[in-house]
Design a protein that fits this description.
The chain has 6 helices and 7 strands, in the order E-H-E-H-E-E-E-H-E-E-H-H-H. The chain is elongated. Strand 4 and strand 5 (about 75-90) form a beta hairpin. The protein has one domain. The chain has about 160 residues and is of the alpha+beta class.
Length: about 160
């Protein structure tokens, strides 16, 4: 994956905005979680400052990736669309302080750097947008699943027959 290095604090201070499209094949960690490396991820990154004066960045990812259904084990297209707000601290201690001060579970606080790879943040957001247990709404071919669900006689039924 191509590195897109930014000064995270300058990016936020100047209210910068970047967007683009990156193939799943270029996102190594994301490609490992997908059924194949087809598809693209559209992304946006917008810098700014919070009400409290802290640097913040809004990241958004959208696109279609191919995942393996955990129910029928066949690939399917998953449409992801996710956005998150990150606040930046200059150290672990400052990040912890900010997190305690804002007390908002919907905002993630991270340690920013003057040489941060934006594509790593984008890939992290894409990974977080994937479902924990991907599956079809309705599996197209349930023959394999039905074969697993066939009723087997209870071992206790055999014991009951012996008792007679």
């Amino acid at each position: 994956m191509n590195a897109f290095v930014i000064d995270a604090f300058e990016f936020c201070r100047t209210n910068s905005k970047r967007d683009g499209v990156t193939p799943v094949a270029e996102m190594e960690r994301l490609a490992k979680d997908c059924a194949d490396d087809g598809g693209d991820v559209r992304w946006t990154a917008e810098g700014g400052t919070s009400k409290q004066g802290y640097p913040q960045m809004r990241l958004g990812v959208a696109g279609t990736v191919h995942l393996n259904c955990q129910r029928c084990l066949t690939p399917f297209a998953y449409e992801m669309d996710s956005s998150t707000l990150l606040m930046l601290g200059e150290s672990d201690a400052e990040a912890d302080e900010i997190e305690e001060l804002i007390d908002d579970e919907s905002i993630d606080v991270i340690v920013g750097t003057r040489s941060m790879n934006l594509m790593d943040l984008i890939e992290d957001e894409a990974l977080l947008a994937l479902p924990q247990s991907p599956r079809h709404e309705v599996c197209p071919d349930t023959a394999l699943l039905d074969k697993l669900k066939t009723e087997k006689p209870s071992p206790f039924a055999a014991l009951k027959d012996l008792k007679k």
